[in-house]
Amino acid sequence: MNRKFLAYISILLVSIIFIVRLFYLQVIDDSYRASPLNNSAVAIKYDYPQRGFVYDRNDVLLVANQPSYDIMVIPQDVAPLDTLEFCNLLQITKEDFIKKYGRAKNYSPRIPSVFLTQLSKERYAYLQEKMYKYKGFYIQKRLLREYPISSAPNVLGYLGEADENFLKNDSYYQLGEIIGVNGIEKQYEDTLRGVKGVKFIQKNRFNKEIGPYKEGIYDTLPTIGKDLTLTLDIKLQKYGEELMQNKRGGIVAIEPSTGEILALISTPTYDPDLMVGRKRSKNSVVLFGDTINNPMIDRALQAQYPPGSPFKIINGLIGLQEEVITTDTHFYCYGGYKYGRGKGAFMKCHCGIYASPIRLEKGIYRSCNAYFANVYRRTIEKYGKANKGMDVWSNHVKSFGLGDFLGYDLPAGQKGMVPSTELYDRWYPAKNWTSTYTISNAIGQGQVLTTPIQLANMTAAIANRGHFYTPHILKKVANNSIKDEKFTKPKYTTIEPKYFDPVIEGMFQVFENPGGTARFSRVKGIEICGKTGTAENPHGQDHSIFIAFAPKDNPKIAIAVFVENGYWGSRWAGPIATLMIESYLNGEVSRPWLEQRMFEGSLQDEYDKQQELERLLKEQQLAKKKAEEKLLTAQEQLKEDQIAKTEE
Amino acid sequence: MRKRKSNILAGIDWMLVLLFVILIILGWISIYSATVADSHETFNLSSKYGKQLKWIGLSFVLIVITISIDSKFYERFSGVIYIASLASLIGLFLFGSTINGAISWYNFGGASIQPSEFAKVATALALANYLGEPNRDLSNLKSQLSAFLIVILPSILIILQPDAGSALIYFALIFVMYREGLPAYYIVIGLLAILLFIVTLLLGLKITLITVISLIVLFFMYLIRSNNLTFRREWPKIMVICVVVSLFIFSVDYVFNYVFEQRHRDRFSIVLGKTSDTIGIGYNTNQSMITIGSGGWYGKGFLEGDRTQGNFVPAQQTDYIFSTVGEEWGFLGTTIVILVFTAFILRLVQVAERQKSTFSRVFGYSVATIFFFHFMINIGMVIGLLPTIGIPLPFFSYGGSSLWGFTLLLFIFIRLDADRTYVW
Lengths: 648, 424
Description:
Chain A is an alpha+beta fold.
């Protein structure tokens, strides 16, 4: 073979190998060029717009932004400086400086670190002109939330940082970006945050930025966040919070003609300012960790209680609609209602009308258990078998928005509970249950569970004589009223409007009739309709419940008040409800003594007692368990001894 | 003589000149792209691409001089040039200045010259001169040793700088000797040695030793069977081969672990896939491969390569210049560059083959071999096929000395070729 061919062949071979390799690198293997913008040579910087403000229905500013200034340091850019002068300027000690600087340098010499946090505006103004002297240090502005009125943290929510879980669902955010965590900050995050601007910046291999990427053709400008106007009346809200101090519970007030939420109170409450900026992480541990008071649970939306006596109104309405009673139908009460042959089959009643006919109106204002037990039984038994009656009853109840999420625009909630045939069939697989098995539903005990907002909405539906608007917290976005049909179209109950008048009359008599259960809470000049409630509670003292709306005609406010372990309805919930109604309608309160009593009244003793009781119960159980174990081991020992003996 | 002179332009191989001009232009465009971001101006003569342009300009002066010198001069004075070149390499250790840890440069008030780039020209001339003597027979040992000495002297001086990469090129001249009659087993043994070297590094001492010796024994047993040889006569041969191979394997292991510096070991480890470091020692190669890979079919366009403009690849304008082509011109660009280089080197071999005088042919072959090995090693390194060996890509890499060295190599040969019809 001619020797020159070695040269030709090796040259061609190398050239072919190179081309194949390049084809692989550049064409086949695409791991190197997913997207030019995902490239490590391009930095993405975001320009965060100002977050929208939040106002109440009367344009009182609730949430604003406060600038906060941090001093940042990039250690590799720091030039030799007069440390003493710099420390004096920042009002820190030299040791402090060395410690902070060392920490930043340890973290990374190239990446900016926070050197000093949250300077006041005054210090910022002073420092701003001096900072140019210190290379590598600069001031970074952040926006924090500011709450001019310390109220309604459960409604407003707070800001946190987007974590990995969140990023999975929404590609808009980067790790650690500010994001609404609760309340309207979460619900209306998209509206409040605006749209961040993006800048693409070319970097070199030292991660140093060397200018805009492609002259900034991909860059976008930020869009400022929109302001929100809430339906909340902050004066009413704050007043309610004050009335509820030292008492646990929830209050929801709704404007019946629109479904707008006027107040949404959950106590114990906390200062929204605690969840701002750097103190948030510390405080959230304290607030979320308080499993006794649970301040982070929105009781107005999330707490489920048996509704108690106010639920009798619904049963009355269903009775009328199903025509099992008329306003003239009367029943008798003998200190209670005997629903079976056994001795235990007796529902006590405290209406105090012994063996005298009770009609609907009286049944309501005296809150007679026996009366409504009769009505309920007739309803369930109307169709023969209990299951059909139960279905009909259940549907009526549900039409008031009970037993399911209402669809309001806040991110927390509970379904509550309206029992149904299905439930009882499950409980009694023989399906032999009858109305008396479920008789407690007649008086709002039993299996019925409601949240305060459901109860308030039910009250609004009664006030409107048969329809309601889905409760909502948002009134305007950037001064444009909301047009969402979900909130502007009425929803109708299954009860005809004509049946509401006698019931409402009964609710009116709760205040007006000398025998009314809330006679004591009557307000001169305002026609309030309401209903007291006392819900039995297996854990301790009964809950105090009250629903009310006013005025009787053209109602402006419907309210549900729930005070945990408040003994009975007219003791705490009634006065608080009427005080709030009076304050909202008249702008002032004519009963300062009652107001004073509410302010000062505390159920803390009750809560402590209950906690102590629970602790004792636990200890008791523990002791019992121990004793049992002891006994068991003793018995075993005895057995072994006996065996040993027999063997001997 | 007079007649010959007037024919110079007609005798020039314009094909080679054309390919040279294409390479120079593509090279400068790449350097411009790789360094324009440093100067923040569209054009500036004191920047790197500006300097390179000046050197290109000066190289044309060099070309004119090279072409005007009588072709016989190169043969006559090749010995002198070689000696002067060796002297310049020795002088480095006295007067040279150290850049990047190697004492490879003379510094003349700002301008640096790298004599090893010119020593290639001198060595090629000397080798051509030696092999060009009448009746030179490379099959006898004395000629072989003399030829090796010519090549090895400068390479030892360069290894001492230390600049192992540049020294490697001189060993490539063994292929020129092969073309001129060096027995083929030198090449075969050389290639086998390289293979054994790689296998030893990959598999480790013990496994290689056992595998290779058993293979040799099996091979001889096959030979004995099929050729009717007797074992009794052949066993000393087998023993000698086994001992030599074992010694070689042991020495590879020894050299790799005790003579090589860590950086050399690292470079081999990366290419052999024994480590996957992309931050420390493997940073250059990894960045270079990412940069080339990000180019895709057609590249990102001139000055649009964000990794080039962001200076992600260290030494991109010198040894890694090919990655600029890869990023900004894509597979299309890299293929064109490789094809132009291939055409250029093939043409060199072709032109060398048509020489009537041995001197011209050997020189031509040396030129082709030097260009080919630069091309192969540099691009092989940039695309991650070969270990990191820092030698420039001809006409592409930034630097005056290498540009002028290559230009001299090429145009001395073109000058010789122009006179090819005259045998003297």
